[in-house]
Amino acid sequence: MIADVPLFPESASHLSEQTDNLFWFLFGVSAFISVLIFLLIAVFAIKYHRRAPNEIGAPISGSLKLEIAWTVIPFVIAMIMFAWGARLFFNMAHPPPQAMQIFVVAKQWMWKAQHPEGRIEINELHVPVNRDVMLTMTSQDVIHDLFIPAFRIKADVLPNRYTSMWFRASKPGRYHLFCAEYCGTNHALMGGWVTVMEPADFEDWLSRGERGRSMVESGAVLFQNYKCANCHVEDGSGHAPSLMGVYGAPVRLTTGQTITADDAYLRESILNPRAKIVAGYRPEMPSFQRILNEEQVLQLIAYIKTMSAGKPLQTTGSELSNPAR
Ligand code: CUA
């Protein structure tokens, strides 16, 4: 059984080769220095061992050249490690702006992925090959951690916060995904598969299956069902600020502080509306904490984002009579 476990996970993303190269560099330097130290200990122990009971060692006092060498060389090596690691880290931390978006909600004990087009999958994640994919993740309960070894990426997934990571899968196939943070009884079972497909197959997959509403459409239905527009009037004449163009824009608060309306701010304002009040408005909005789940909050945010374009998506009457999913 043990023989079946590969020494290294497969390498299947733009990052995996770079991460492995850095790993092998660190491993090589560590191995070289360890071997050098133990070899020298052995060699010196033999070469300079005491030959007579009354033998005394030669007095040796410092060597500037030697001291400079053993300070400068390790310093340079350490700075190479730092610069290399930092470059990789910044690359991992900055998703390309045009990356495809997928939304992940973790809960005890499953991974739920939501594609903007509407498909929802559990413990599975389908993505196209050679395309930048960004995951926006949150947890409905405790801290989880999404780990895809073949892509060499891993990030904590926290309640009450959005975290993200991105990748570009480099070859089609099926790769394990894991929860890498102990999260309770079935933590060990909280895993699944990433399926990397050719772009055409992916488009096909996306359009197949029982297709629900897109995230934006679901968000629009929630927006209508909860009568958000009664207060958030488009022209700004309502009890609450207009949401037109709010996404990504600066918002002035009653505290005098100005913040950017990003995903995290919108989420907080839906679930805990009194945390940050827009200047000129009163804290009147009720909390949707126990009413909306994390998937629905993501859908609402997706819809609010479209309002930034200046024209919110219009829903038809028949869709509005359906309860929100
Ligand atoms: Cu989720 Cu461990």
Summary tags:
single chain, about 325 residues, alpha+beta, Immunoglobulin-like, Cytochrome Bc1 Complex, Chain D, domain 2, five-stranded mixed β-sheet, 8 helices, 12 strands, about 20% strand, elongated, disordered C terminus, binds dinuclear copper ion
Count of β-strands? 12
- Seen as an oligomer or otherwise, the chain set is single chain
In CATH, the architecture of the domain at 100-208 is Sandwich
The CATH class label of the domain at 100-208 is: Mainly Beta
Neighbour order of strands in the largest sheet: 3-2-1-5-8
What is the SS-derived class?
A: alpha+beta
* Beta-strand residue percentage: 15-25%
- Name the ligand types: dinuclear copper ion
Distance between the termini: 44 Å
- CATH fold-level assignment of the domain at 100-208: Immunoglobulin-like
Low-confidence stretches: 312-325
Query: What is the molecular shape?
Result: elongated
Q: Kindly state the percentage of residues in helix.
A: 25-40%
Backbone CA Rg: 28 Å
Order of helical and strand elements:
HHEEEEEEEEEEHHHEEHHH
Note the main sheet: 5 strands, mixed
Separate helix tally: 8
CATH level-4 homologous superfamily of the domain at 100-208: Cupredoxins -  blue copper proteins
The overall average pLDDT, rounded, is 85
